[in-house]
Automatic annotation (TrEMBL):
This is Heme A synthase. InterPro entries: COX15/CtaA_fam, COX15/CtaA_HemeA_synthase. The chain crosses the membrane at residues 62-82, 89-111, 117-145, 157-176, 207-225, 245-262, 268-295. It is a multi-pass membrane protein. Pathway: Porphyrin-containing compound metabolism. It comes from Paenibacillus marchantiophytorum. The lineage of its organism: Bacteria, Bacillati, Bacillota, Bacilli, Bacillales. The gene is ctaA. The keyword Cell membrane applies. Keywords: Cell membrane, Disulfide bond, Heme biosynthesis, Iron, Membrane, Metal-binding, Oxidoreductase, Transmembrane, Transmembrane helix.
């Protein structure tokens, strides 16, 4: 039974990853209205017409439905056969975030919503993926969160502040997409040929996101340097910090590529999805570090 639960947990994490990536594609391809203003039907049909936008939107809905069924099965089995309280919390949080984002997605189709609310949809998807990833890790060696040595209070604070701030940056990035502001800054690292452009309209939105992303890179770099200074090479804190730094570096680079790919629709969609996927992985590692700090055992 434990092997079955582990497989379902792994499928849940993979499924949430797909939902997040496909959601980013829906936004980038402007396919959110591909099924009109109907839900769960798509333009009045269970099987939609073969238009690109309708297939993208309907595929996203289909994957959400399948993953939700997997999550329900995982939820039941975890609560019946798994004793660890953290596993029960992770699956409960995953199911809750998934249901809320599914409801928000349905409402966004039937009742058009503001960009602020639509951006939150991606934020909830990100949380759902992070919780599902933590659940999958519970059944691996990386899921042994208990420690034999103490964690510095200052390091705990850095981890949590950085993670919360990263969520804000990711949310703002989703806001950029939903307001279709990406074209506000042409070129990278300069914005419209200036170090500090005129901060109005879409230019101000994109430039603010760039500054926020730069500050996030600095925060994670500082986090890694602190982990390197105080914890040995094999410590999970150092491992997680190192990969957070690698991924935030890739995030910055992919953001630049997204900007450079404007004008090529296919490249723009592909690089936009890659950017969202890297962000999700980075946030997952930061959440893993947060969980490690909760299992601190005094030396």
């Amino acid at each position: 039974m434990q092997k079955l639960i582990q497989r379902l947990a792994n499928l849940s994490a993979i499924g949430m990853f797909l939902i997040l990536a496909m959601g980013a594609l829906v936004t980038k391809a402007d396919a959110g209205r591909g099924c009109g203003d109907e839900w769960p039907l798509c333009n009045g049909k269970f099987v939609p017409a073969h238009t690109i936008s309708s297939m993208i939107e309907y595929s996203h809905r289909l994957v959400v439905g399948i993953v939700t069924l997997i999550l329900v099965a995982t939820f039941i089995l975890v609560f019946r056969y798994v004793k660890r309280k953290d596993a029960k919390f992770f699956i409960s949080a995953t199911v809750l975030m998934t249901l809320i984002q599914a409801a928000m997605g349905a409402m966004a189709v039937v009742w058009p919503q503001s960009s602020l609310v639509l951006a939150l949809h991606f934020g909830l998807s990100l949380l759902a993926f992070a919780f599902s990833l933590l659940l999958a890790l519970v059944f691996t060696s990386w899921g042994q969160f208990q420690r034999d040595t103490a964690i510095r209070s200052s390091f705990k604070a850095i981890v949590w502040i950085t993670t919360v701030y990263s969520y804000v940056v990711v949310y703002f990035g989703a806001f950029v997409r939903h307001t279709v502001s990406s074209g506000g800054c042409s070129g990278w690292p300069l914005c419209n040929g200036a170090v500090i452009p005129e901060l109005s309209g879409s230019t101000g939105i994109v430039f603010t996101h760039r500054i926020a992303a730069l500050l996030l890179f600095i925060c994670i770099l500082f986090l890694y340097l602190q982990a390197k200074k105080h914890y040995h090479d094999s410590d999970k804190l150092r491992f997680g910090s190192k990969w957070s730094l690698i991924l935030v570096s890739l995030q910055v680079a992919s953001g630049a590529v997204v900007t450079w790919s404007m004008g090529n629709e296919v490249a723009y969609l592909f690089t936009g999805m890659i950017h969202a996927v890297i962000v999700a992985c980075m946030f997952g590692f930061l959440c893993y570090l947060c969980v490690l700090t909760l299992y601190d055992r005094k030396a």
